[in-house]
Amino acid sequence: MPHTFVRRDVWDLQAEGGTWNDTLSWYSIAVDAMTLRSAKDVLDPTGWTYQAAMHGTKTPNPKPGVLWNRCQHGSWFFYPWHRMYLYYFERIVRSVIVRDHRGPADWALPYWNYLSGGPHAALPPAFREPSRDLGPNPLYRELRNTTKGVDVNAGDPITGVDVPGQPSVVSYERSFSYRNFWSDNWVGPSFGGTQLKPAQFGGNPGQLEIYPHGVVHDAVGGEHGLMGNVRTAASDPIFWLHHGNIDRMWELWLRRGEGRANPDHKDWRAQKFEFYDEDGNRQTMTAADVLDTARQLGYRYDNLHEVAPTADAGGPRARRSPTPGRPRPEPELLAASERGTTLTGTGVTVGIALDPAARDTMAAAGAPRGAGDAQEGEDRFALALEGVSVDRQVGEVYQVYMRPSADAADEYFVANLSFFGAQPHVDNDEDDAAHPGGDLSMSFDITDIVRRLTADGRWDRSRVTVDLRPMGTSGIADAARPGHPPAVIRRFGIYRY
Predict the structure, then answer these.
(1) Is CATH 2.40.360 correct for 332-496?
(2) Which own/partner pairs from 8-12 qualify as long-range (CB within 8 Å, at least 24 positions apart)?
(3) CATH 1.10.1280.10 residue ranges for the chain
(4) How many CA atoms lie within 13 A of 279 on its CB side?
(5) Which positions fall inside the Tyrosinase copper-binding domain (predicted)?
(6) Radius of gyration of the chain from its Cα atoms, rounded to whole angstroms
(7) Residue 250, SS3?
(8) Mind giving me the DSSP string for 140-189?
């Protein structure tokens, strides 16, 4: 029977074997060896530079056919593409360990489980030490987050900006509450993203892709670090452990049941993507090839148990995934802000005026429902942030809230907001055209918030009041932080979907 490799929690490995346990020691050796391969030939597909550039790079493709800038973001292909990516990377690393260094044949890529917060939300020590054995440490990267007192290379947990009683940087319960893997329109929020053709940067990301996935990228990378930019993230060795945890969370979401399932849609299941194996041979896989990690790919996770719910527990119970071939009404714009906003490091309040028809539609939403009580075909409402763009890496995580009125003190959490993936990028097509961004939108279900506000009878129904503020603050600040990279949101919309 084929061997099943076991991916383990890196902090458990730390507890058992110390900083340089066998798994991380061999990983360090392999990263160093792959880096040397790239120094000899940057187009060696088993080298570190090429593997990182497959996800993203600031360098245009050197020639047609090179598989650089191929990552899938902002669409329903986010999960299967990254699973394939890690699978072949793990095979390459294992090959270096076994063939070149006679290391353990059962080596498997560990994952970084930061979900419980606390000390486990810090980078493991092996990634923070600049040197090892009198030489540079291959797992260390200087370009990481040092802003707002969260110095990840000093051992500060990425949850250092958390405020008691508010959702954490590593919150995931709200993302898990979406039972639909995908949406067939750009407005409808989902766990896994919008139905689109393959594209390095799509339209409306899945909720888990926004947070904790994107938020952790921002928290580790900050304003200048590798992890904070899609084009450089995979150059940081911690990237692969972060995505191991995201891959594991896909499995955790499926285990929740209650209608959660992978798409049974030919456009998703049959889509092909290309990678390189440990011998440098080009391989092709489809989403249908990677749905059972143990049977199809030969690996499993040591722990598929969830941690205790985080502060954002109980979020929206969105409808199940669309049924292929069944027509669905187009999303209806009920109201939109008169103008957008530019976030510059402090809080912003946006008012969205509601005309009488929009008020009546939202007021008819009914009473709040219990967990899992969403009905097929019922009206649901989404807050959409449209035309999101940045001209450079932001590295700031924002939180989105709704309030009953402009002068109300109480607030309702909507989402954590990451701008990872909104930067200008180099496309993977043959002309390597640079794209300025601005076509990214993010939407979040607000149906239960609307129901609670209506039931409370305190809602100023003439408008929707939305607050956006940097994580780690407890209110709207007065002035922008000088020099903070701006993030532009062209419009805020309220949609029925």
Answers:
(1) no
(2) 8/108, 8/110, 8/111, 8/302, 9/110, 9/111, 9/112, 9/113, 9/302, 9/303, 10/110, 10/111, 10/112, 10/113, 10/124, 10/241, 11/112, 11/113, 11/119, 11/120, 11/124, 12/302
(3) 5-301
(4) 3
(5) 236-247
(6) 22
(7) helix
(8) --S-S--GGG--GGGT--GGGG--TTS--TT--HHHHT---S-BSSSSS-
pLDDT of residue 375: 57
Cβ atoms of residues 161 and 150 within 8 Å:
yes
Per-residue model confidence (pLDDT) at position 201: 81
DSSP single-letter state for residue 9: B
Query: DSSP assignment of 177-243, as one string?
Result: T---S-BSSSSS--SS-B-----SB-SS--HHIIIIIIHHHHHHHTTTSGGGSTTTGGGSTHHHHHH
CB atoms within 10 A of CB 403: 19
Which helix (H) or strand (E) element contains residue 495? strand 487-496
CATH 2.60.120 residue ranges in the chain?
Answer: 332-496
**Tokens standing for residue 449:** 């918030």
Q: What is the largest CA-CA distance in the chain?
A: 73
- Confidence check: pLDDT of 220 > 90: yes
Closest CA to 193 of 179, 181, 201: 181
Domain 5-301: give its CATH superfamily. Di-copper center containing domain from catechol oxidase (1.10.1280.10)
Instruction: Please provide the average confidence, as pLDDT, over all residues in the chain.
Output: 89
**pLDDT average, residue stretch 396-406:** 92
Residue 474 has pLDDT above 90, yes or no: no
Buried b / exposed e over 61-99, threshold 16 CB at 10 Å, is beeeebbbbbbbbbbbbbbbbbbbbbbbbbbbbbbbbbe
Q: Which two tokens stand for residue 165?
A: 């009683």
Per-residue confidence at 433, pLDDT binned at 50, 70, 90?
very low
Residue 369: per-residue pLDDT = 60
Q: Which tens digit of pLDDT belongs to each residue from 99-118?
A: 999 999 999 999 999 999 99
Q: What is the mean pLDDT of residues 381-407?
A: 92
Phi, psi of 342 (to 5 degrees): -120, 120
Q: Residues for the chain: how many in total? A: 497
Residue 15, amino acid: A
